[in-house]
Write a structure and sequence with these properties.
Elements: E1 2-3, E2 10-11, E3 15-19, E4 22-26, H1 29-36, E5 52-54, E6 57-59, H2 62-67
Organism: Streptomyces cupreus
Protein name: Prokaryotic metallothionein
């Protein structure tokens, strides 16, 4: 069995995520999102969808980007 790096659960169905040369072990998608998903620089929510990015800043939506003065970022519709 493998131990989840977020919650410490020793779980037989744990899985590996490989990103940026590192290997991470999780027992659930919830723990994977807690560790891996970027955080919106405006509202601090976890970005699980496409989100928006500019100059190293991440936003969950165009509204949050506008709140931080990034009017050039728009949602895709």
């Amino acid at each position: 069995m493998a131990v989840c790096e977020v919650c410490g659960n020793d779980y037989e169905l744990a899985f590996e995520v490989r990103a940026a040369g590192a290997v991470h072990i999780f027992d659930s998608l919830e723990c994977a999102a807690q560790r891996m998903a970027p955080i919106c620089d405006n509202c601090s929510c976890r970005i699980l969808g496409h989100g928006l990015q500019a100059d190293g800043e991440f936003y969950c939506c165009a509204h949050c980007a506008r709140q931080k003065g990034r009017a050039e970022l728009v949602d895709h519709a």
